[in-house]
From TrEMBL, chain A:
Protein name: SAGA-associated factor 11 homolog
Main location: nucleus
Entry text on domains: The long N-terminal helix forms part of the 'assembly lobe' of the SAGA deubiquitination module.
Function: Component of the transcription regulatory histone acetylation (HAT) complex SAGA, a multiprotein complex that activates transcription by remodeling chromatin and mediating histone acetylation and deubiquitination. Within the SAGA complex, participates in a subcomplex that specifically deubiquitinates histone H2B. The SAGA complex is recruited to specific gene promoters by activators, where it is required for transcription.
InterPro entries in the cross-refs: SAGA_su_Sgf11, SCA7_dom, SGF11
ZnF (SGF11-type) residues: 165-186
Composition bias, Basic residues: 236-252
Record's subunit section: Component of some SAGA transcription coactivator-HAT complexes. Within the SAGA complex, participates to a subcomplex of SAGA called the DUB module (deubiquitination module).
Annotated organism of origin: Cloeon dipterum
Subcellular location: Nucleus
Extent of the signal sequence: 1-17
TrEMBL record, chain B:
Record has Protein transport as a keyword: yes
Primary residence: nucleus
Organism: Cloeon dipterum
Keywords from the named record: Activator, Chromatin regulator, mRNA transport, Nucleus, Protein transport, Transcription, Transcription regulation, Translocation, Transport
GO biological process terms on file: chromatin organization; mRNA export from nucleus; protein transport; transcription elongation by RNA polymerase II
Subcellular location: Nucleus, Nucleoplasm
Name this protein carries in UniProt: Enhancer of yellow 2 transcription factor
The family this protein is said to belong to: Belongs to the ENY2 family.
């Protein structure tokens, strides 16, 4: 009991005039339960109420508290205890709520502090606040550049310029994106390349004409193609030029001054094709007649010597492969040549034609005994045979009346002449082929 | 005698304390107080030793400023809530 009184007296003195703090302190202590023993807590509570009570009394009296006042206070304690809470309830509640609020705020800020501390310890504080940090701390390393025509790293933006390639075969400049498709067509690899037809014609003409210096080694036109692929552009171009020039020369010799370049032969081929597709039903030349007739029989013949020429059922076009094309049979080729022959007999003059055939054959024999040449010759011979057949059969099924009948003898003569010419220089083996 | 204890217990039991906490957190996030406190923390960390900074140090430095930064509106709102709760409970107690 004495102990309690002593503590109370002590507290009364210490809290004199600053009771608010004491109340707050008390509440704080209560809240955090730092007051260990139940007894002392009770004492504190009592003393606190007393202080409040004295304060209330002080207010009521409006006088300065005397030293005796404590004792009086103590004497009045029961009554003040009854009144104290009632009077100071609002104040107490205010204090309490303020404390609680502060506590809550501390709690919230502690949460933030924990978060920041953790991120700092783990080292991602700078990363979390990235943008501001970049502006401040790490700006020496990688400053963010905000300027026109620059990216964020301060590099000048690359202009979206299209790269241009120069085609090695035709020396045209193209956009890089268009280069591959162009090359496919230009170099003659794809199915629908524009040059592949002329290339094949050129190759087969080489074989057919027999001046196959290039092809004589291999004897196969496909190998020639392969060689083209491995050669560089300029070399290839030169080679092509050579081809053209030799061919031009040949054709000049053959046709007696008629200019026949590959382009001409191409167009001849096209017109022929158009003619075939339009007038396939044995209709006499109507629409395509001028173009068809504008090319001499010699050209048509050279064309037919070079390509397979069978009209496809699907596309209605001439087959542009070589004479040894595996897709069509010998019979089909013969038939189509007969078909052409029936036109020729009705339209064209023959002497040139026959001369031409002879020429061709003779040329081929000069270069001699390579297998390819021989085969080409047999093709030529078979064509000749076909013409012979057609010439014999043409009167029977020809639609035209006068011209065909009048020119019949010349045709047969031409065919015979050609045959004779070839016969003169043919090796025995090819003669055997001939006669079969 | 144990009025405060009783009050504290009631606050916790009824879940009112948690509700206040949540409300306060929401309000403080809304008004950007959290970001401000974050900045304070970072400044404190930058000023002090980067690695050695403890939570207590941070708390001591930041908490007083953080208290001041809380907007009055938020304070008043929460205070009224707490007061009403306390008044109700004390009234019940006294009755």
């Amino acid at each position: 009991m004495f102990k309690i009184i002593l503590v109370w007296i002590l507290l009364t003195f210490t809290c004199w005039g600053q009771h608010e703090y004491s109340v707050q302190n008390y509440l704080h202590h209560v809240k955090y339960q730092r007051v260990t023993s139940r007894n002392s807590r009770a004492v504190l509570t009592v003393s606190c109420w007393v202080v409040c009570g004295t304060d209330g009394g002080r207010r009521l009296l409006g006088t300065k508290p005397s030293t005796k006042w404590t004792r009086a206070g103590r004497a009045r304690r029961p009554s003040s205890r009854r009144r104290g809470p009632m009077i100071n309830m609002d104040e107490l509640i205010n204090q309490l709520s303020a404390t609680i609020l502060d506590d809550l705020i501390d709690d919230a800020s502690l949460g933030v502090i924990f978060g920041v501390h953790r991120s700092n310890k783990l080292g991602y504080l700078a990363i979390e606040d990235g943008f501001k940090d970049n502006n401040g701390e790490h700006s020496e390393g990688h400053p963010i550049v905000i300027a026109p025509n620059m990216d964020v790293f301060g590099q000048v933006a690359i202009k979206n310029k299209q790269h241009e390639c120069i085609c090695p075969s035709c020396n045209r400049t193209l956009a890089a994106s268009r280069f591959a498709p162009h090359l496919e067509k230009c170099m003659g690899m794809g199915r629908n390349s524009s040059r592949i037809a002329s290339r094949r014609i050129a190759n087969s003409s080489k074989e057919g004409n027999g001046n196959g210096n290039i092809a004589s080694g291999t004897g196969v036109s496909d190998d020639d193609d392969d060689a083209d692929w491995t050669f560089g552009g300029s070399e290839k171009k030169r080679k092509r030029k050579d081809k053209h020039s030799t061919k031009k020369k040949n054709s000049r010799v053959k046709n007696g001054g008629a200019a026949a370049s590959t382009a001409v032969s191409d167009s001849a081929y096209n017109s022929l094709e158009g003619n075939i597709s339009s007038g396939e039903q044995a209709a006499p030349v109507v629409n395509g007649a001028p173009t068809f007739e504008s090319f001499g029989a010699a050209e048509k013949k050279t064309l037919l010597l070079q390509i397979c020429g069978v009209v496809s059922e699907h596309t209605g076009k001439l087959c542009t492969r070589t004479l040894r094309c595996p897709q069509h049979s010998e019979e089909q080729r013969r038939n189509i040549r007969n078909f052409f022959k029936s036109f020729q007999t009705s339209t064209e003059s023959e002497p040139l034609d026959s001369d031409n055939v002879g020429n061709v054959d003779v040329d081929s024999y000069e270069d001699g005994d390579s297998q390819a040449v021989r085969e080409a010759l047999t093709r030529g011979a078979s064509w000749d045979q076909a013409t012979e057949h057609s010439s014999t059969s043409s009167p029977a099924d020809s639609t035209s009346t006068t011209s065909s009948s009048s020119k019949k003898p010349t045709t047969s003569k031409g065919g015979k002449k050609g045959k004779k010419g070839s016969k003169n220089s043919t090796p025995p083996s090819s003669i055997a082929v001939f006669r079969t | 005698m144990k009025e405060e204890d009783v009050l504290t217990a009631k606050m916790i039991e009824s879940g009112e304390l948690n509700r206040w906490k949540e409300l306060l957190r929401l309000r403080l996030t809304e008004c950007g107080w959290r970001d401000q406190v974050r900045l304070l923390c970072r400044d404190a960390i930058k000023q002090g030793n980067l690695e050695e900074m403890t939570v207590d140090q941070l708390n001591n430095e930041v908490t007083p400023k953080a208290r001041q930064l809380v907007p009055d509106a938020v304070k008043i709102e929460l205070l009224t809530k707490i007061k009403t709760f306390l008044q109700e409970n004390t009234l019940q107690e006294s009755q």
